[in-house]
Every structure is written in structure tokens, then in C-alpha cells.
């Protein structure tokens, strides 16, 4: 039968990925402007990595990709790494918020793939 | 001064792009399953084109890209082409809805870039 | 120590991914124009899936992503699925060639990640 | 008539984009590891911008996108901006090489679109 709706579980995961994509790119931009950029190298790098896999994951879900689960499992892993890096810089409001969103996205991805 | 917020105009455009990305991918998947796929060739093609530029545009805004306006102007053009193609297939609910979202996104992109 | 070169193994894998990205997109375009498009639905879909993960994989290697191995393992899996689908349509020259390139890319990705 | 080959002009442009994608990501990674990262902020940012539009442009050509010319014109503009930024840091070998490749890609894109 033709699949014409996206179930709630998938939708929740897709929205979590889009939120995380935005937050990681926002944090990336802010990190690039921080005075202590020397400390932010890994955060800049991981924000980009995370934004890219979140974009792929959200797009994969919305196009009903046969690999959406595998992509989301990888996404969860990268979100966790990014969240852990951001959590080291919680004195920056953008990193603190990004860490939270990353961990939420990791949870949503793992829940979806299970 | 460091830019730490996204203004309303940009945010609206970014959200329109994300909505359009989802709708185009949804329409792409539905078109690939339609019985009359022979008629949907251009729709499948343009849905993908549109989803990809919308992803780039939303990401560009969220990372404060110096080229966000140029990217959104191109996005508006592709959204209009996709919307016009989808509008030819309004008997398919997914195409009808996709056309509407594409035209809205084109407007949001043009408004943002002006 | 700062890493300023890409080793041969990685470079080979990156080039295989770029070749596969091109071939999958080429096959996608050709499939969209085939008379028997009804038979090519899964090929169109998988060509796009494969092109997107190959783009991510090649980009990940070139930017020294900490997740390049994980991304390439997923890439190998999607390349194999795409190659198997293309192999069903070997009477189309583009599918035949795409299947070969997909399998080569899968091998290169697995070798790199091991 | 079905288009089954990519003409030389397009192929040259596609290869220039892929070369530029690799070089920009390579420069991005190297910049993120430079001691004087404080000076490299714009280079990191533009390397990413350029890599992303080059990826889109190469993919657009390979899938015979109806918007390949418009995408390549935008790509040329971003390549030039990235090349100009990289040219300011020619004491870094990776920036020097990246500037050259960016300018070559800008030329190829403009030639293709004309």
C-alpha cells in the first residue's frame, strides 16, 4: 500500500533533527566569533559535523528513505559527541543550549531506530 | 558586534525553507509511488531540486552565511518552478499541498532578500 | 601533530565516493527519462540515496571528520543496495555501469573503515 | 531526445567543482588546526560555504539539473570570495593552494554558464 503519511514517531525525530541542525549551525557561527576561539576548535568542527548529519537524517525521513534508521543511528552518535563537546563550554549560552538540543536529538534518533 | 540572535524576518524565511524541504521530499516519495509515474517525471525531479536548495538555504541562514541572500534568491526561483510543476498535478493531494508550500517559500525568500 | 596530508587509502576511498556520486546522479537522470520508468522507481530512489551518502562521505574524508569511518561504513551499505538494484536493469547501459561503480565504492569504503 | 552523455564543457566544470570541494575542506581542516586560528575565522567560514556550494554544483551538473547554470553562477561568486580570503593567508601553503583552485573553479563555472 502506498505510504502517504509520516507516523508520529518519525515526525518527532525529523523535527528533532531540524531543531538540532539549526542549533548546531547557530552555535558554529557564534563560536567562530568568540574571543576564545582557540578553545572552540573542536566545537566548531563538531557543530558542522552534527548539522550535516542532522540535515541528511531529516531529509531521509521526509523522503521515506529505506536507510532512515541506519542514518539516524549514526546521527545519534554524532549528536552525542557534539553535545559532549558543547557541554564543556557551558559558560557560552549557545554551547549550553546546543548541548541540550543535541542530547534531545540523540534520544529521538535512538527511539526512532529501535 | 557579535551577532547572537536571528531576526524575525530571517527566522521566518528559514522556517519556510524547512517546511518546503519536508513537503518536497514528501511529494517526491509519493510521486515515486504513483500509478501514473510517467506523468510525474518532472515533479520527481523538481521536488528533489527544490528540497536540496531549501536545505542549503535554511542551513545558510542558521549559520549566518554571508551569501544567504543570494542563496535565497536562487531558492525562490527553484521553489517557483517546483510549485508550477506541482500545480499541474493538483488532483494528487501531495502535489497540491507542495505547490502551496513552494509558493509560500518563494515569497518568504524574496521578502528576506529584498 | 597537525595533519596536513591525506593518506593514500583515504584518498582512494574519497575518489571512489566522488565517482559513485557522479555515476548515481547520471543514472538517476537517465532513469527519469526511460520509457519503462515504471520499472525504475527503486533505481531512481536508490540512486539519490547513494549519491547523497557518497557526497557526505567524500566531504567527510576531505575535512578529516572524526566520523569518516562510520560514515563510510554506512556508505558501503547503501552503495551495495544501490548496486544490487541497478544490477537488475543491466539492459540499461547506465544501470550496468552504475552497479559496477557502486560495488567498487562499497569495497573502497569497507577497506578504508577496516 | 534522451540525454545520455555529459558534454566536455559541463564535465570540466563538474570536475573543477569537485576539486574545489576537496581543497576547501582540506583548507578548512588545516585552518582549524593553525596556531593563529584567530586570523583564520573568515577562512574557516568561507571554506565551508564554498565546499557546500561546490558540492551542490557538481551534483546538479551530474544529475542534469535544469538549474545548473544558475547554481554555477552562484558557485562562481562564492568561489571568488573564498579565493580572495584564502589569498590573504598565502603564507599557509593550504590557503595558497586553495585560493588557486577556487579561482580556477570560478572561471570554469562562469565559462559553463555563459
Automatic annotation (TrEMBL), chains A, B, C, D:
The record ties this protein, via CDD domains, to: DUF326
Which regions form coiled coils?
Answer: none
Pfam families given for it?
Answer: Csp
Q: Which Gene3D superfamilies match?
A: 1.20.1270.360
Q: What is this protein called?
A: Four-helix bundle copper-binding protein
Protein source organism: Paenibacillus lutrae
Amino acid at each position: 500500500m502506498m505510504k502517504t503519511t509520516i507516523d508520529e514517531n518519525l515526525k518527532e525525530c525529523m523535527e528533532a533533527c531540524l531543531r538540532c541542525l539549526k542549533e548546531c549551525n547557530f552555535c558554529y557561527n557564534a563560536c567562530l566569533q568568540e574571543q576564545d576561539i582557540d578553545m572552540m576548535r573542536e566545537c566548531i568542527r563538531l557543530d558542522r559535523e552534527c548539522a550535516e548529519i542532522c540535515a541528511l537524517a531529516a531529509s531521509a525521513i521526509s523522503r521515506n528513505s529505506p536507510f532512515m534508521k541506519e542514518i539516524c543511528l549514526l546521527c545519534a552518535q554524532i549528536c552525542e559527541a557534539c553535545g559532549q563537546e558543547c557541554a564543556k563550554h557551558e559558560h557560552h549560552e549557545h554551547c549550553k543550549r546546543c548541548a541540550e538540543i543535541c542530547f534531545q536529538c540523540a534520544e529521538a534518533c535512538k527511539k526512532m531506530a529501535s
